[in-house]
Amino acid sequence: MNRTTHPILSMVLSRLGLGLLSLVIVSLVIFSAVSFLPGSYAAAILGQNATPEAVAAMERQLGLDQPWALRYASWLATAATGDLGMSFSGRPVVDVIGPRLANTLTLAAITAAIAVPLAIGLGIACARWRGRLIDRVLSTTTLASISVPEFFVAYVVMMIFAVKLQLLPSMAGIRNGMDFGEQLIRMILPILTLLLVILAHMLRNTRAAILSVMASPYVEMARLKGEPEARVVMRQALPNAIGPIASVVAINLAYLISGVVVIEVVFVYPGVGQAMIDAVRNRDVPVIQACALIFAAAYIGFNLLADILSIVSNPRLLHPR
Amino acid sequence: MNDSIATPSAIPGRLTRARRALAGAPLTARFGMVVVLAYVIVAVFAPFIAPYGEVEVVSRVPFDAWSAAHPLGTDQLGRDFLSRLIFGARNSISIALATTLISFALGCLTGMFSALAGGIVDQVLSRFVDALMSVPDLIFILMILSIFGSSVPNLILIIAVLTSTRFFRISRAAALNITSLDFVEAAKVRGETLLWIAVHEVFPNILPLMLSELGMRFCFIFLSIAALSFLGVGIQPPTAEWGSMVRDNAALFSMGDITPLIPAASIAFLAIAVNFVVDWLLSRASGLQDEV
Amino acid sequence: MTQDIPSPLVLEIENLSIEARANDSWSGIVNGVSLSLRRGEVLGLVGESGAGKSTIGLAALGYLRPGARVAGGAVRLEGQDLLALPEAARRPFRGTKVAYVAQSAQAAFNPAHRLMDQIVMVAVERGGMTRAAAEERAVSLFAALQLPEPDRFGRRYPHQVSGGQLQRAMVAMAMMCNPALIVFDEPTTALDVTTQVEVLISIRRVIEEFGVAAIYITHDLSVVAQIAHRVAVLRYGAVVETAPIGRIMAAPEHPYTRSLWAVHELSVSHEAAAGHDTGEALLSLENLSARYGDFEVLSDISLTLGRGETLAVVGESGSGKSTLGRVITGLKAPSAGRARYAGAALPERVSRRPKALLRRIQIIYQSADTALNPRQTVRKIIGRPLALYHGLRGRAREARLMELLRLVELDPAHADRTPGQLSGGQKQRVAIARALAAEPELIVCDEITSALDKVVQAEVLRMLMDLQARLGVAFFFITHDIEVVRAIADRVVVMERGRIVEQGSRAQIFAPPHAPYTETLLASVPEMAPGWLDRIIAARA
Amino acid sequence: MKESHFRKAGRARVSRRHFLAGSSALAALGAAGGLPLPLRAQDGTPAQGGTLRLGLHNASQNDSLDPGSWSTSWTGASFNGGIYNNLVEILPDGTVAGDLAESWEAGEGAVTWRFRLRPGVTFHDGKPLTPEDVRQSFLHHMKPDSTSGARAIVDQIASIETEGEDMVVFTLAEGNADFPYLLSDYHLSVLPALEGGGIDMQSGNGTGAFLLDSFEPGIATRLKRNPNYHKPGKPHVDEVEFISIPDATARLNALLTGEVDFIQDLDGRNIPLIERSPDYVVQRVPSLRHFSFDMDTTVAPFDNPDVRMALKYALDREDIIEKVFLGEGRPGNDNPVAAIMPFHHEMPQRSYSPEKAREHLAKAGLDSLTVDLSVAENAFPGAIEAAVLYQEHAARCGITINVVREAADGYWENVWLKKPFCGVDWFGRPTLDWLFSTIYTSDAPWNTGWSNARFDELHALARAETDEAKRREYYAEMQEIIHAEGNTLTVAFVDWRSAVSTRAGFGEVGGLLPLDNMRISERMWAES
CATH 3.40.50.300: does it fit domain C9-260? Predict the structure, then answer.
């Protein structure tokens, strides 16, 4: 079956190549942007203890006195070996980001595990019964929920469940010594908030993707072959809508990893988004770079996965003539 | 089914067509348009409508309860909440609108240019946009605002540039569809310049799609400015802005007072209204061939 | 093929009226149509586009397109009125009792599933067959339809199969459950003539072999003449005339039917023009080749076109004739060879051609829908070349615009319309006016009449010939339609797979002996008379 | 209201026991340092046991146990105040008392200082405290390439020696009567020395009231009670948890939903809300923190003392405090020395006076004046609003102030010390000597060009002077000089504002440093 694997493989390889190129561009853009930032790690960390000698000494220790092109080159050289280097605080970047990335991934994974099937299922239901009550209700509510600022959702959820009903803790912060059950309970509110935010987006796009396929002649043909409507949606339309659905899911998954800063702030969840903002504030370049790479890699990776999925679901691309 | 087109009896004028289109709009879209119009009126006439000034401290009691003098109470500095809300409409809408329009112009032009030019230009632009899109907006905005300072023009510019990547993507894709059509080729054969083709041949055809994208992006920008203000890096006090009003008064909310939700609800309400209109525009744009 | 003993009624459409929603009102698209069909009978539904043919065809399956509704009447399939049933109860009939063959099989097969899965689905799920039995039947149908490798054919995906084969696969799908009725909706319209013959033969074979009743929808009278026993002529959603094929061919009664038949013989008498080759070559191509990547689309093309002459380039899809047009207009650079125009070398690319040269070579496209910007008014569309090439503005431009509209026989009032508000023929006239506005010497016409109904096609061609006589413009006329070539060409170039297989004057090409490919091409064009297909089948047997 | 009581307490504590060098005073202080701290229970007697959860805001993922790297109240309170001790501590009333040091004495001219360690102090792992531990802890900051935040302090130390089993001897480069105060700096925690030099900055092994249980940088730190703590009765709680909540609203929510018992830096906007509820107390602790508009006196027109005076009279401090700080704060008096500091010199309050401002303008030979005032949102909280109000005030005095809004990020690098007139947020220094030598003497690193020979002279005199009365005299004169012609226009002094749940209790709270001089964990108690 050399014929069937080959196009995917070459596509994946070329996309991986482009993805790597994008990562390098991102790292370059971020690195230069950070070096344009006023102030330095030394000044940020030393605060009111920042005497010029102390700042100079620290900058020398961190190699910040080197020209930025040189610093970037050496960073790139280490990063290319898979080593994210040391944070300016002296701890390995992996140790700084690792636990927070784990938190972010946990939150993202649980949210995605609920949101993706739910969104696709409901999206299919809306497409199946388009114009009916369920469709109208879901269309309107999802429209409302993508129109609401996420901090608003977060606060409402918090007020109801934490302040008024006192059912759930207001802080999602996971700390050492909490067992997984307590962690889960603490994550309920952020998960709920994120669900409300991303569910709507994915649901609407699933519905739209299916409906756009529903206008195809082969869907009419299926009806003319007497296929019931539910099967028309599931068997005729859905396989051809996987591409666009996968790509909107990819965007939302990438968002779950990189875009939940507001949720992290409101629920005091120690995720990687806050880590990056913290690092930007402190000018901790290695950490900033690592976060940017993680975010960009997530975005590129999920999009690549979506592309692969849409190829696998599309015989035209999978089995070229 | 469109054989009636062959013998059109009377071709309606633009106005009539617009009126007919409006009459044919679903209830949600009409509702959306009314709401948007109401917001715009409030925004434009804010100084006349608001009972007090934007930054005027009218009460010595911060977080005063709702009363006849202050229908929504006062905020953390003892300013009239309702007046802040009204001025907030003006600031929030105008800033979001300016941002959207700039990013629209920037994104559309570069997108169409990229599609028409093709080749290496297209590749370079697309790669760059891809890279930009793969970094979370918020991080970029934070850094840029750190470099250039958090002023309204800077805020508008940076968000406009980042949002223009979305317009770029869509307008490029839409323009690619159009550029494969014969009339664009005909224009090339005729010897037209790329700019002329972009403006006269391509743009009018991607406009409906771009308009709906414009509406959607307006909502996103509106929400992200609110989120930025919420995080404290957006529009700075004392300018009344809905996002920061939520944040500044969020404590009240913790105490069970819903007042801080009003600006958030205002954001949501406008966004919903715009989305209703966008939905309608989208369905019209997708049914373009039926529209006569 | 005649039926002396009346077989049982399969389909009876009685006084059927269907309305469609346009803007905010409902208007009739099928108005009181009554038809009946017996077992083994093939009814041809003919008419121009928009006459309501497909709507009636779909109604035979109890199916209405979204935005349409039944205003009255009945559709009785073997005695059961489908329209009286709710939608869910109509469904079981489809695919088993009545099947549908769509115009474009490429669009009507789901690209995501293998052909076999799609073909056997109804039989397995509702036809009471096991999967194995259904596949076996499918394979035997593939064989009957002369599909290649019948055993393995079903494993392919739709995109891996050619258009003609796909169309036959769709016939096989329709036959799976041995339906009483099959509706063929223009099944050969999208195919090349040589492919069309194969599909027609297959359709004819299964109809006869299985004795089903069929509705055959087409706008092509010569096709209907080969397939149908009876013909119903539709216009504006109503039946104008129904008659056995022999009678309607020989003696159409209704004036509209007569007019349909009349235009089929393209009445563009162009014999007189044959001599206006001035001998001066306007355009000459020498050993020209062009490639897309590694694939050579044009090989070693040499031809000349004189001033005021019509050169017809004929060939099937994939023959490279349209690419040749793009090379001439400068949209595609040749990979080898030379092109000369009016004695000077022709720059390869549009961007290298001066405006004055661009003005002299214009192009008209097949589809006016895509060639005219739907967002511009006719005034802007035609006015632009006037301004660009001739610097006309204001009143002068307006005057010239009106002149051009009259030249292409359009109402000057149409100047303010957008293409969407014009009919297909009117749009093509606008496109012609736009080309003429440049006052060119050469117009490349790329299949400009193939999207038009026969009547309109004849009018447009006649007008072009008139214009040529008056303005002395040369036409590089790309077409797949032998009829058109016969009607207008001074000289003919026959192309196959990027090469010229034969060229010469019209008389030379149409008179034997032919090159082998020209022979096939000419032989594949259906004749108007019934029995042509029978002769072909007989000749092959 | 408990908080108002506190406020009065803070204000009333103007006259305080001053630390004196000299043997008699030393004996007294040494004794005081050795005694259990007076538990002036303002909220009843301290309970023992339970868990205390503190919601603080400035944790960073870069935090580490290296004392030289500490720069935040988070690191100060959780590490220095929780698991380590200094040789001395500053009591809530502002006096310095022995902590790991039982007593100390200064040599002639306050150049040599001998500290005797408290007997019986052990580290968490049971190892007894030795002078070498102290020496190594100081040497850590004194390394040539040190980036320690305590650099400015340890630079004054010429040498550090151990003597016997319980004595550490510091020799200073020049006399400094305030030296023991300096040793209370939170960077100067005593960590166990390692074999062959250096200190153990990995294990969290200290002498402090708590054992390090878990440390997640930027997220939370949890400490468990040290049963062998050398301060009798301390700590009150079994467990204390420091939880990072950077967002002010989230912090408030955490308090309101019972996630934490104490939140730091209560947003002024939320004070009225907290005050409405019986379950929470607003804790206001007078601090050294003050906001000012500072002038570069080498740049015209600020080089003219009358211009400076005109600008000082053109500021309506009360108005700004009322409108911008919502009444939370005390007007500055163009004197950077806080009222709670030793040797604070009371002077008549300078208040808004357009007439006097015009008078001084006239003296400077000017009819009108136009200056640019640079501020950013983080120059100090409310800086922009304050500047805008100042603009209004000054306009009535014939002075035009252009408020230049600078970028927040980078303000301290690009504006402060670079633009001639800008807003500054000062956290103060616990001693006048330290304060002046950092900011106001001619050679101070953060001085903006202001130079006064008499001021410098008095500074040198006071530093080496061990007679309290004389020092008071010198320092009073110095404050008079700054008040009269200094380069700083102090707008307001503010309190440390916290909100405390009634589940938790606290005694008298010190304000020289945030969080009860960083020792909040051993001083607060919780309902168990």
Answer: yes
